Amino acid sequence: MKFTLVLGLALVALTSAHIPSMLLTEGELEAQFEQFKSTFGRVYPSPEIELHRKSIFRANLQFILRHNIDYFNGDSTFSVSVNNFTDLSNEEFRATFNGYRRLAAVSLADSVHADNDVEALPATVDWTTKGVVTPIKNQQQCGSCWAFSAVASMEGQHALKTGKLVSLSEQNLVDCSAAEGDMGCSGGWMDYAFKYVIQNRGIDTEASYPYKAIDESCEFKRNSVGATIHSFVDVKTGDESALQNAVASIGPISVAIDAAQPSFQFYSSGVYNEPDCSTEILDHGVTAVGYGTLNGAPYWKVKNSWGTSWGRKGYIFMSRNKQNQCGIATKASYPVV
């Protein structure tokens, strides 16, 4: 559900002499906050906590309004919106949902995808239309993005190999891959997850090992394996052409990005272009499932794990061929089935 009053306020502000202040009246703020609580089922444990969350909501709403004025004026290629994270500070948001942790100093992969020939590739690729991408999932308040990224690329490769799309278990990785270096809800790395599945000789189905969004003891069941892999490949670091080649010729690719900016927290539509993004300081695992061009802007189609109420029904279009913006090609990898 999109917040129509936010749109209306931004449009009104375009003709206002008070754009720099963008002050909300108490009535406008109250209406937005009540709509937010109703939409996302917020019930706070005390009046003091609700007041604190309302204060954070106000600051975030001001950011959203200011950004969307830039968007409506043509000064930004993407819009932002009130969503499930609007009562969280950016610091809280990053600490809870951005769980990519790369601890190894060197690559663990057996090989590198260095083919960066894009001349013969199609102008647009979208694996979500090919029956190899499961519906959007939700990691909830657990830093397990790395597990969702790894699972999405394994689901894709398994479907391409067998013709059967099977939803695989992120919880299996959260609970069982500590020996490889992952830390459950405290973070992890997709390559560690691939290493675990190789050594474990499989990963369970989601149906047999459902997601709980908490760290628990390992309950892997050999007779519930949904897929196996025998190796994994790293895409040449920082090379967007190599990543494009991999997405087009291989399938969904696990990628790590910098998702720390408030603009990412509230992304809604358009092609995400954030010059403050880092190409090296990465904190979130997602999956590149395609690429294309929107209104002249090249993009990567990226599957996130924050539910369908975020972004483009759970997806984001991220800038492509903009000097590896947000590090999307810095640590990309994929499993081999």
From TrEMBL:
This is Ale o 1 allergen. Belongs to the peptidase C1 family. It comes from the Eukaryota. InterPro entries: Papain-like_cys_pep_sf, Pept_cys_AS, Pept_his_AS, Peptidase_C1A, Peptidase_C1A_C, Peptidase_C1A_papain-like, Prot_inhib_I29. PANTHER family: CYSTEINE PROTEASE FAMILY C1-RELATED. Keywords: Disulfide bond, Hydrolase, Protease, Signal, Thiol protease, Zymogen. Pfam families: Inhibitor_I29, Peptidase_C1. Residues 1-17 form the signal peptide. The keyword Signal applies. Residues 33-93 form the Cathepsin propeptide inhibitor domain. One of its GO terms (molecular function) is cysteine-type peptidase activity. One of its GO terms (biological process) is proteolysis. Residues 121-336 form the Peptidase C1A papain C-terminal domain. The keyword Signal applies. Coiled coil: none annotated.
